[in-house]
Write a structure and sequence with these properties.
Blueprint lengths: L10 E6 L5 H14 L4 E5 L6 H10 L7 H24 L3 E5 L2 H10 L4 H5 L10 E6 L2 H6 L11 H14 L5 E4 L4 H20 L10
Parallel strand pairs: 1-3, 1-4, 2-3, 4-5
Helix pairs in contact: 1-8, 2-3, 3-4, 4-7
The chain binds thymidine-5'-phosphate.
Length: 212
């Protein structure tokens, strides 16, 4: 094979605590790859625009109450409802920069006390990211960044527990980014890592599935 027919977009995931800078960095990476002429889209989970996403949003803003297992499965369903579009985009050559994914799902629900293996189960079969970048920041520092916005999970003690579960979920392939550095420095580091990944997927690196 020349590899040409297997060329595809890269599935790039950004993870980290609330206020670690994922959303700003997603936007910067999007315009960087765009500028280089790579087809790319920026996605995020939860995707609050779908019917499931609206239930999640109402829960996060404390407008509704849900059992911990129920909201966990809704977050997962929100990824499943986007799965086929995600695969189609990647196969058509578009790279996706995704702000949060299954790791958020497992880390946040486990931090509430749900069994970690139970949390992983509904994620099995979703597309595995080609790259996970973890924006690493001490929970105290994240909390200082202009304060939290008042959504359900934006509390220091809870975020400390989430950080522990992220650590348990992380593997040596994750790129750990020091999110305490100035935005521009973080951006420079991430640009380089992302470009490597996009190039290797263009060369036909196979798509795989969770849970790895
Ligand atoms: P956001 O601030 O990135 O929109 O995410 C909203 C909150 O939802 C954030 O505190 C992380 C949490 N979350 C989960 O608990 N499970 C999930 O599967 C995802 C994607 C996010």
């Amino acid at each position: 094979s020349t590899g040409q027919s297997d060329a595809r977009g890269a599935l790039i995931v950004l993870e980290g605590l609330d206020r670690s800078g994922k959303t700003s960095q997603s936007a910067r990476l999007l315009s960087h790859l765009n500028g280089l002429g790579y087809p790319v889209e920026s996605w995020r989970f939860p995707d609050r625009d779908t019917a499931v996403g609206k239930m999640i949003s109402s829960y996060l803003t404390n407008q509704s109450q849900l059992d911990d297992h129920t909201i966990h499965l809704l977050f997962s369903a929100n990824r499943w409802e986007k799965r086929s579009l995600m695969e189609a985009k990647l196969k058509s050559g578009t790279s996706l920069i995704v702000d949060r994914y299954s790791y958020s799902g497992v880390a946040f629900s486990s931090a509430k006390g749900l069994d970690i293996e139970w949390c992983k189960a509904p994620e099995v079969g979703l597309l595995a990211p080609d790259l996970v970048m973890y924006l690493n920041i001490p929970p105290e520092k994240a909390a200082e960044r202009g304060g939290y916005g008042g959504e359900r999970y934006e509390q220091l003690e809870f975020q400390k527990s989430v950080a522990k579960y992220y650590e348990m979920l992380s593997d040596p392939s994750w790129k750990m980014i020091d999110a305490c550095l100035p935005l521009e420095d973080v951006e420079e580091q991430m640009k380089e890592i992302v470009l490597d990944c996009v190039v290797s997927c263009q060369k036909g690196k196979p798509l795989t599935h969770l849970w790895l």
